[in-house]
Amino acid sequence: MTGPGGTSPEDSSAPRRRIGPYEQSLRESRERVEAAERERARRRRRTRVVAAVATVVVAAGVGYGAYRYIGQRDVPTSVPTVAAQPTSCAKPVKVRVAVAPAIAPVVGAAATALAQRPDAPCAAFTIDSEEPFSVAGSLAGAGRPDAWITDSSVWIGRANAVSRSSLAPTEPFASTPVVLAMKDDAASALGTRLGWADLLGGTVPVRIPDPNRSAIARNVLGVAAATLPVPRMRSLVTSSAPTAGGGVTLDGLAQARSGAAVVSQAQLVAWNAAHPEEQLSAVAASEGAPPLEYSLVPLTTDDAKAGLVKALGAYLTSSATQKLLQDSGFRTASGDPKDPSPLYGEIRDAAAPSSATLAGVFSLWNASARKTQALIAVDVSGSMLERTEGATRLAVVQKSTVRALAAVSPTAVASLWIYSLHVGNRADDYRQLTAYAGLGVAKSLTALDSAVTGLDTYVGGGSGLYDTIAAAYDRAKSAWRPGFTNTLVVVADGPNEDDYGLSLDLLKKRLAAAKDAKRPVRIVVLGIGGRADAAAMQQVVSVTGGQYISTRTVEELQPALAKALGG
């Protein structure tokens, strides 16, 4: 008896050959893959991927590793950590592109593929995965990339207001609809109750990002406001706003007892591709929602770089990239992606909510959102001029600081100080660059961006860390704001180096005497690259119930700083 694969093992008359360890391991790998596919069959994974994998395993004998490689290549799930070097030239121009997170892996894969072409532009494209809200608020100086891929034209207006530029929206090259991600058993239990009022106003907790900072949340809450009763909308916002950030993660959702998350189809596709054992189902609301629309916005004023950005834009509309986009859950000019599987409901687009509706949503949200007032003191001692990969430590800190400030909630208030020996007007070890101001005001962000961009004019000398902490704590306490988390955030590149200022013991005594339970100020110290005196900083922050965070590299500063600012 024979089957599709040739002679059956039960046919004892068939000629036999010796199977070596390597081939045996391949067969075992194949069996594991097939078993896993049968287990996931109820989730209706795409059969074309399974067939392709099986063909490769049988014909080429490359085992399970090939399966994983093929899957990742069809749906990119991570951003390249280094710029792809083109084969067309020896000394490429470095071009930095800030890209909305959901599409960043695909853009990274496209940039890598473009670099491998014999006619590739002479460019090394670095892809930075950045929330569009954050990029829009940090284009005035140190945080400005050469190009930007945003997920909504609404952020263009924010960028123009903060950076005082005149950027214009460009034609989107891709879009993706909005869905809810949840476990399959929870999704199947919904039945026909698929309106936004059912999905957002029920008993299932839904992860929703801050609509001030997320196009998805703007679109969903704006549409839902038309059908969700005001009391239920208020309840939803009250439970979501205090812990919401600028984006939503699907981590842990597959293991949670219940829950859902508002995401794009592309984000869900990428999650399922990267987590085959934790796949989530898609639920489409009956009213629909406006999709996310991705466009490339050139920012560089360098003519040579502008041409390279244009070449990348052209490749993003090529047939190869459009197929990659469609496989990853994006719509393109040449076609739409397959619906997520399983999908409950029908994916529909809705019109954008009105300005009046959004204003009501923002008012409710901001009333419940957590609020932070922070004094940020940044180290500008001479060690900041040392180079890290491709830039000085100061340059990385500048970019990280403006992006972190632009990423936090617009309800936050911040002031910026710098410190090094005798940097102040009266030979103090500290200097105020900007007074406390709301980050929801474009003028305030512009002032902060400009101040951070100009930090290189102050760099030099040693670190007057202890005197700075004492003075900054006094200032934060005197400016204490009720209803806010009042914080002093210190970015430290090394230990205290002022032998004539406060000692560690005197600093601790001074903080203990100044501490006021009725006007609490929390101290957070961010040590860069392990240079700070961790033991001393632990003692300092413990006086006020604060926190010391050590980042292994300068590049890790941005997320840590954003978190310290309540981001």
Q: Care to describe what's here?
A:
The chain is of the alpha/beta class and 567 residues long. Helices cover 39% and strands 17% of the residues. It has 20 helices and 20 strands. The strands form five sheets. Strands 17-16-13-18-19-20 form a six-stranded mixed β-sheet, sandwiched between helices. Helix 19 (534-543) links the parallel strand 19 (522-528) and strand 20. Helix 1 packs antiparallel against helix 2 (47-60) and helix 15 (393-407) packs parallel to helix 20 (557-564). The radius of gyration is 27 Å and the shape is globular. It starts with a strand and ends with a helix. The model is unreliable at 1-30 and 32-73 (pLDDT under 50).
A few lines on this structure:
The chain has 567 residues and is an alpha/beta fold.
Defining traits:
single chain; 567 residues; alpha/beta; six-stranded mixed β-sheet; five-stranded mixed β-sheet; disordered N terminus; VWF_A; VWFA domain-containing protein; membrane
